[in-house]
Amino acid sequence: MTKVIEADRGFKVWWHLTRPHTLTASFVPVFLGTAIALAIDKETINFVLFFAMLIASMLIQAATNMFNEYYDYKLGLDNEHSVGIGGTIVRHGVQPKTIMIIALSFYAIAALIGIYICASTSWWLAAVGLVCMLIGFLYTGGPYPIAYTPFGELISGAVMGMGIVLIAFYIQTRTVTLDAVLLSVPSMILVGAIMLSNNIRDIVGDAEGGRKTLAILVGRDRAITMLSGFFIISYLWIIALVAVDDITAWALIIFLSIPKPLRAIQIFRDKKEAKEVMPAMKYTAQTNTFFGFLLALGLLFNYFFY
Prior knowledge:
Blueprint: H1 2-17, H2 24-40, H3 47-74, H4 96-120, H5 124-138, H6 152-173, H7 178-201, H8 203-208, H9 214-218, H10 220-243, H11 259-270, H12 278-305
């Protein structure tokens, strides 16, 4: 019985290491890019490529989280009292070397899947994929980690938001259209919002650790205002696309997700302690998840019913 409990506890530690609540930031863009390909370009979906892209993206996201765990520990930014971390090193005694090996193994598997995707579509994607993987590593690794600069939101949004949507679209259509680019913009903004909310939560600890994040640069109150702007622009962007008759009005079902960002901003305004604003982080991530999922559904409704 004891062994079963220990095994279960061990699984939970390793599962928590991947930070599963963040994996939707890799799943939703793949789903959205594929939905755009089906709904706008009227393509027949290659489900093998879809699932290959999905698995590779989630592996890269999980590995990026592990790099974050490793390097934050090495730089002395994480301890057993830190909020919002995997905690496998400082709380559960897992060796940093082990985490790095797992992260690199995930990258290796993602690379093998990427080779299959390239062989089935275009080898130009190999360069794009390598850049994405390099950015995933450099986000918290290397001599000048991106996450410690004011550019973390922009770069993570461009790669994990817009980039994944367009790659998912390309592997189905063999092209990138203006419509696909325009529909990927909210995904870029909302992935950036996840990073910004993380930096708002950690603003005190990051400042003490010598980071220069966007939240630190502009200050907490302005950062919350910027986060509000990210949410507002994302919703207004879709309204504008519908208004110019570029996409179906079904896309407006994204407004079913609006309680999530409203709640996130309210919590950030009312609370300041890192533990107290953790729910705001959750609501921000859920905004990205539900917004992207509902937008994809709206496009698919139009395809199947009209």
